[in-house]
Write a structure and sequence with these properties.
- With 278 residues, the chain is of the alpha/beta class.
- It has one domain (10-274): 3-Layer(aba) Sandwich (Rossmann fold).
- Helix content is 46%, strand content 15%.
- The protein has helices spanning 22-32, 43-46, 49-58, 70-84, 99-102, 112-136, 163-185, 208-218, 226-237, 262-274; strands at residues 10-14, 36-41, 62-64, 88-93, 139-149, 188-194, 248-251.
- The structure holds nicotinamide-adenine-dinucleotide.
- Nicotinamide-adenine-dinucleotide (NAD) is lined by residues 15, 17, 21-23, 41-42, 45, 66-68, 94-97, 121, 148-150, 194, 196-197, 199-202.
Length: 278
């Protein structure tokens, strides 16, 4: 096991809500690998005992911000630099929310105010984060920015709804900003496309248990857990991956390259033994 991969590095982790959150696991792993970090989430989330407990345990000050507010983001980058003592080396965007999903509006009957919110929170916030950091020159040379995404950006997934469009936009922002940030400051920008994971955001998707089981059967290595994701994201923050930028990297046990697997086919065939589905 490699240790101290992030020794001396400073970072900001957005999106740790509870101990199931992917950002929570990344924060713990980054800390264990020697990084100093700050945490950020909405004011409501920050008032929850769980996030405060993480903040105290990791000695990682908590800075509230609505990620759709440029002013709030400026404050996070400003305060983080003051607290950590200089420019940051890495940033995690682990933020997603869709009111259409929450309120069970199907994709062919979207509420457009909700759609605007989905895109603002789940995708445009990433652009805002990058633009604020770039304009404040808050990320050090060879810094690394990662946002979490899902394979529904490339392939239609039943019930993923407008989050699919949000993820496609998020991945595009990583490429567009990655070019500028790489060219001008050697800062890398990537998205990590994670397996379905049982978190608060994940379990909001209808039929999530079935999706997780299907995905696990389809993936030769099985679903990647939140802990697996944290291990990978930490390498993306480290100096071992300095020349990776503008990529969407699938961290999904092989799911994205599969069409049909033996384990999924066996389960599918079982359905014919009990019911005759057209
Ligand atoms: N869980 C999965 O199956 C899965 C799979 C692939 C990608 N992802 C992505 O991983 C990321 C993290 O989600 P998670 O699964 O850990 O769930 P989570 O619910 O633990 O995290 C989502 C976070 O977004 C935050 N958030 C929502 N609105 C915000 C706003 N306006 N400003 C700031 N923060 C806001 C929430 O407070 C929460 O901390 C999301 O981008 C999600 O789409 C999740």
């Amino acid at each position: 096991m490699l240790t101290n991969l992030l020794e001396g590095k400073k970072g900001i982790i957005f999106g740790a809500l509870n101990d199931r959150s992917i950002a929570w696991k990344v924060a713990e792993m980054a800390h264990a690998q020697g990084a100093s970090i700050t945490l950020s989430n909405t004011a409501v989330a920050c008032r929850m005992g769980e996030v405060m407990e993480l903040s105290e345990r990791l000695n990682a000050p908590l800075i509230p911000a609505d990620a759709t507010s440029v002013e709030d983001l400026q404050n996070v980058f400003q305060k983080s630099q003051e607290i950590l003592g200089g420019k940051v080396d890495f940033v995690l965007h682990s933020i997603g929310m869709s009111l259409n999903v929450r309120k069970k509006r199907p994709y062919n009957d979207l509420n457009y105010d909700f759609l605007n919110k989905t895109l603002d929170i789940s995708s445009i916030s990433f652009h805002k984060m990058l633009q604020v950091a770039y304009q404040m020159d808050a990320i050090a040379e060879w810094g690394s920015v990662v946002a979490l995404t899902y394979a529904a950006a490339q392939r239609t997934m039943f019930e993923y709804n407008d989050m699919a469009d949000a993820k496609a936009l998020l991945e595009s922002i990583a490429r567009s900003f990655g070019y500028i940030y790489g060219r001008e400051r050697h800062v890398r920008v990537n998205t990590v496309s994670q397996s379905p994971t049982m978190t608060t955001a994940g379990s909001g998707v209808k039929g999530f248990d079935g999706l997780m089981d299907f995905s696990d059967r389809m993936s030769p290595l099985g679903n990647a857990t939140a802990e697996d994701c944290a291990n990978f994201v930490v390498t993306m923050f480290s100096d071992l991956t300095r020349k990776i930028t503008m990529q969407n990297i699938f961290h999904d046990g092989g799911f994205s390259s599969m069409g049909m697997s033996q384990r999924a086919m066996l389960q599918y065939n079982k359905s014919f033994e009990t019911v005759n589905v057209e």
